[in-house]
Specification:
By secondary structure, the chain is an alpha/beta fold. It is built from 9 helices and 9 strands. The two termini are about 35 Å apart. Bound molecules: guanosine-5'-triphosphate and magnesium ion (MG). Guanosine-5'-triphosphate binds next to α1. Magnesium ion (MG) binds next to α1.
Amino acid sequence: MQNSSATRCGHISIVGHPNVGKSTLMNQIIGYKVSAIANKPQTTRNVIRGILTQDNYQIIFMDTPGIHIQSKSLLNKTINREAISALEDVDLVVMLVEAMVWTKEDDFVLKRLENVNCPVFLLVNKVDRIKQKDKLLHFIQTVSTKYNFKEVFPISAKKVINVDEFVQSSLKYLPKNEFIYPEDFITDQSVRFICSEFIREQLMHNLHQEVPYLTAVEIEHFEEKAHITRIHATIWVGKKNQKGMIIGKKGEVLKRVGTEARRSLEEFLMTKVFLKLWVKVEENWHNSPKHLKELGISG
Ligand SMILES: Nc1nc2c(ncn2[C@@H]2O[C@H](COP(=O)(O)OP(=O)(O)OP(=O)(O)O)[C@@H](O)[C@H]2O)c(=O)[nH]1
Ligand SMILES: [Mg+2]
C-alpha cells in the first residue's frame, strides 16, 4: 500500500491534429504498443489510456483521436467529440504538433484549449526530421506564443528524443495521490479492443484512399488455450465494392492484413495466434448511431 503523501498520480491528455504522433508518443512512454499507429490521419478513434507506473508516480496518459475540421459523417463528429471530452477532468494537457508544420487544424485545436482549466504543455514532435536547427528554433519560438503554454519541448516520439525530460517535468503538475490502477496495468482497454485495433491498423497500412476510414473491426470470438489464442473477427464495410477491395485479387489483401495483424497480436499476447477474418457489408454503418455504439465508438 502506497503512502499518498509520497506518491503522485494523475491524468495527462495528449491532443493534436491527426497524424502528429500522439499514439506513437504514448506507446513509447509506457513501453508497450497499446495504440494503433499508421501514417494516415484518424487512425485512433477512441480515447485510449496508457498507464506508466514507477516507484513514486503513476501517470494515466490519454491518447485521443486527432481533432479535425472536416466532420461530415456521424463517425467523424463522434471522433472529434471523443477527443474534446478528454480535455475535461485531467491534470495536464499536452498539445502535440509536428515540427515546421502549423495548419488550420492546429488553430482549431487551440480554440478547444480556451476552456481548459489545467496547465497545457506544447510538444513539438518529429524533430528528428529537421536538419536545419535554426529554422526549428524559430518555428518553436513562433508557435510557443500562440497560447499560454506552461512548458514547451521539442521531441521525437519515434527516436525517443527529450521524451523522458517531458515526463519528468510533468510530474510536478500531478496531484499527490495514491495509485488508481494496480502497478502492472498498462491500459484500461480490454484485450479484445486492442486486438480489434491491431487489425484495423493493418487495414490502414494495406488499403488506399478512403477505404480504411470506412471500415470497423469487431471481435466475434476470442478463445485462449494453453498454447494458442483463437480470434475470429469481422471487418465491417459500408458498401459492397469496398468488400472486394479489402479481399483483393485472389484474397491477397485480406491475407496480408491477416498475416501482419497476427504478428502484432502474437507479440502483444505473447502466444501463438490463429486469426480468422471475415468481411461483411453494413450499408452506411458510419452514419448509424446504433452500429457505432455496437462497435464501441460511442462518443
Ligand atoms: N519521423 C518521425 N515520425 C514520427 C514521429 N512520431 C510519429 N511518427 C510517425 O507519424 C505517423 C503518425 O503517427 P501516429 O502515432 O499514428 O499519429 P496520431 O497522432 O496518433 O494519429 P491519429 O490517431 O490519426 O490522430 C506514423 O507513421 C509514425 O511512425 C517522430 O517523432 N518522428
Ligand atoms: Mg493515434
